[in-house]
Design brief:
By secondary structure, the protein is mainly alpha-helical. The chain folds into two domains: 189 residues, Growth Hormone, Chain: A (Up-down Bundle), CATH 1.20.1250; 198 residues, Growth Hormone, Chain: A, CATH 1.20.1250. The protein is 83% helix and 0% strand. It has 13 helices and no strands. It is globular. The two termini are 32 Å apart.
Length: 392
C-alpha cells in the first residue's frame, strides 16, 4: 500500500508512538522529582537532567523531520522507537545518576526522530479531507500520555522501584516499533527540489507556517506554565498538594476529550483554524487574568479546564492547517520545524513567567502571559487566510 489513504489499521501504531513520547517526557520527570533524594541528585542536577529531554528535541526535531523526507518516515519512526527502547533499557539496568542523565538525553533524541516523522505520516495518511479528525486523535493520545504518565510512573515506582518505569517505557517502544513495522504502510519518498538556506528561511517565514506555529508555541507556553505553576499556586494558597496535581490532570483530560471533537468539526467545515485557534487562545488569556485577579481552588480548576480547551482546540487545528498548506515532499521538515516552535514555547513560557514573577509577582506574571496570549490570538485572526481546501 503506497497511496496516501487513512485507515485505523495504519494509523493506530502512530497513536501508541505519540503516547510513548508523552509518557516518557512527563512520567519520567515526575518520577525523578519524587525520587530525587533517594537517588542522590541535587536540585540543580535534577533540573539539568529534566532539561536534557527538551534540549535534545529543540536541536534535533527539524533535522530528523528533514531526514524523514529524504529516506521515508517509516524507518525514522522505527529507528527512533528502537533507540528509545535502548535508552530505557540502559536506565533499567543501571539506574545511577549518570546513566539516568544519559538515558534522559537518549530518550529525548529518540523522540526527536519518531515524533515529527509520526506527525508527517499522520498528515500523509489522513488525506486533505480528514486532517483534523486524525490529528485530533493523535493529539488526544499524546494528551492521555501526559496525564497518565505521572500517575503510572509514580505507581510503578511505588510498586517495583524506578527501574519498572523504564522497563514499561522500553516495552511500549518495542511494541510500537514492531506494530509500525507490521502495520504502517511504507509511504513513498517523493521527489524534492534542492533548497538553499534562503529557501528554508522563506519557508519558515511564510504566513501559512509562521502563524500556526506561533499559535502552537503560545499554547504550549501556557500549558508549560500551568503544569509548573498551578501546583506552586496551590501550595501558596495553603491547599493540599493533590489539588495542584488534580488541576493539571483536569487540563490534560479536557484536552484529550476536546481534540478529536474539534478535529471532526474542522473537517466538516464547522470550525476554522482562524476562528477556533484565536478563540482558544482568548479563552486561555481570560483564564490567566481570572487566575491572577482571584486565585483560589475554584478559579484554579476553571483555569485548568480553560487551558485544556485551548490546547485541545489549537493543536489539531494548527497542525491540520500546516499539513494542508505543505507539499508532501517536505512534510517531515515542516512538522519538525513546527514541533521546534512548540518546544521553544514549552521552555520559554515557564522561564518568562518565572522571570516576571521574580521581578514583580506571580499574579502579575500570569496577567502578562494572558496579554501575550490575547496578542497571539489577535495576530492569528488578522493574519490567517483561507486555503484552497479549508475555510481558514
Amino acid at each position: 500500500m503506497t497511496k496516501d489513504t487513512a485507515t485505523p489499521h495504519g494509523l493506530a501504531p502512530l497513536y501508541l508512538a505519540g503516547f510513548t513520547t508523552a509518557f516518557g517526557a512527563h512520567g519520567v520527570a515526575s518520577v525523578l522529582g519524587a525520587e530525587n533524594d533517594d537517588i542522590g541528585m541535587s536540585l540543580l542536577g535534577l533540573g539539568l537532567v529534566l532539561a536534557l529531554y527538551d534540549l535534545a528535541e529543540v536541536v534535533l526535531k527539524p533535522l530528523f523531520g528533514a531526514l524523514s523526507d529524504r529516506i521515508g518516515a517509516k524507518p525514522v519512526i522505527i529507528g527512533g522507537l528502537v533507540a528509545f527502547a535502548v535508552a530505557s533499557a540502559a536506565a533499567f539496568a543501571m539506574p545511577s545518576v549518570l546513566v539516568l542523565a544519559i538515558a534522559r538525553l537518549g530518550q529525548g533524541a529518540a523522540a526527536s526522530a519518531f515524533s515529527p516523522a509520526s506527525s508527517a505520516s499522520v498528515a500523509r495518511l489522513a488525506g486533505k479531507e480528514r486532517l483534523g479528525r486524525y490529528f485530533g486523535r493523535y493529539g488526544a493520545w499524546k494528551s492521555l500520555g501526559y496525564v497518565l504518565g505521572p500517575l503510572l510512573g509514580i505507581a510503578l515506582t511505588h510498586w517495583a522501584g524506578i527501574s519498572a518505569v523504564y522497563a514499561v517505557l522500553g516495552a511500549l517502544a518495542i511494541v510500537a516499533a514492531v506494530w509500525v513495522a507490521c502495520s504502517m504502510p511504507s509511504l513513498p519518498v517523493l521527489p524534492r527540489t534542492r533548497i538553499t538556506l534562503a529557501d528554508l528561511a522563506r519557508e519558515v517565514t511564510t504566513r501559512g507556517f509562521l502563524i500556526p506555529t506561533l499559535m502552537l508555541a503560545t499554547s504550549t507556553a501556557v500549558i508549560g506554565v500551568a503544569v509548573g505553576f498551578l501546583p506552586l499556586l496551590a501550595t501558596r494558597l495553603a491547599l493540599p498538594p493533590v489539588i495542584g496535581a488534580a488541576a493539571v490532570a483536569v487540563l490534560a483530560l479536557v484536552s484529550t476529550v476536546v481534540q478529536p471533537v474539534v478535529g471532526r468539526w474542522r473537517d466538516a467545515g464547522r470550525i476554522s483554524t482562524r476562528t477556533g485557534s484565536s478563540a482558544g487562545l482568548l479563552v486561555a488569556a481570560a483564564a490567566l487574568v481570572l487566575l491572577a485577579l482571584a486565585p483560589g481552588t475554584v478559579t484554579m480548576f476553571i483555569a485548568a479546564a480553560a487551558f485544556g480547551l485551548m490546547t485541545g482546540t489549537v493543536t489539531p487545528l494548527a497542525f491540520a492547517h500546516l499539513a494542508d498548506v505543505t507539499p508532501h515532499a517536505r512534510m517531515g521538515r515542516t512538522m519538525g520545524s513546527a514541533e521546534l516552535g512548540r518546544e521553544i514555547g514549552d521552555a520559554g513560557g515557564p522561564s518568562f513567567v518565572g522571570a516576571v514573577a521574580t521581578a514583580w509577582t506571580l499574579p502579575a506574571a500570569l496577567a502578562v502571559l494572558g496579554a501575550v496570549s490575547a496578542a497571539s490570538a489577535t495576530l492569528g485572526w488578522s493574519a490567517l487566510r483561507p486555503t484552497a481546501s479549508t475555510a481558514d
